């Protein structure tokens, strides 16, 4: 397995590459994984979300256990919505409560699929080859907005706010997802612990079926959906999502008017 990350350097450039032993071996880009020869210490780099997706496709009702709990039929095709690129943040960045919204904010720990090549009308085999690797996602939702209007469920609005798509900390290629579990911690309390092989549609099936509906570009992400254990977050609480072999994605919810600098100062003081 290889671990891939994306950083900002001190001069403001964005660099991407394979991380090993505290060093970034720089590559041209995710869709052109050709080494540049540069080797940089990660200690002098600022980590970012590991990719910059043009779109994030987020699945709903893709785990048998959650479908059974909600008493929903298993879908014949992936049920999905789109989260905007502007909602993406990386590990350690704060989730911001939307201004003027006082309702419930919900976390969802999910496996993420990162697309490595342009993909349209792909077979399952072609789809598997188009997967660059896997990451972690917190698909955040302003839950009270979903049914605010009784005539139109607002999935995209509720899930599309800035900072509502946490991705990271890295992408792992060659990851064997079939035997893995996802664990979500809310501060120090375990809230989710579910097997990834309970998915209705496997990663390759997701890419194949959704590619019949839209074109995937390199760097696009699929959030594979969540299982049981979803819950709400209060200001100051930290959600940490872990899959052994990929790592841990942690983000803290802050109030609408709070600054990232103040959040960092409080975190350093703990």
UniProtKB/TrEMBL annotation:
Q: Does the keyword Calcium apply?
A: no
Query: Which stretches make up the Fumarylacetoacetase-like C-terminal domain?
Result: 55-253
Pfam families recorded for this chain? Answer: FAA_hydrolase
* UniProt keyword annotation of Metal-binding present: yes
Keywords in alphabetical order: Metal-binding
Give the domain of life: Bacteria
Protein name per its UniProtKB record = Fumarylacetoacetase-like C-terminal domain-containing protein
**What organism does the record attribute this protein to?**
Paraburkholderia metrosideri
Organism placement in taxonomy: Bacteria, Pseudomonadati, Pseudomonadota, Betaproteobacteria, Burkholderiales
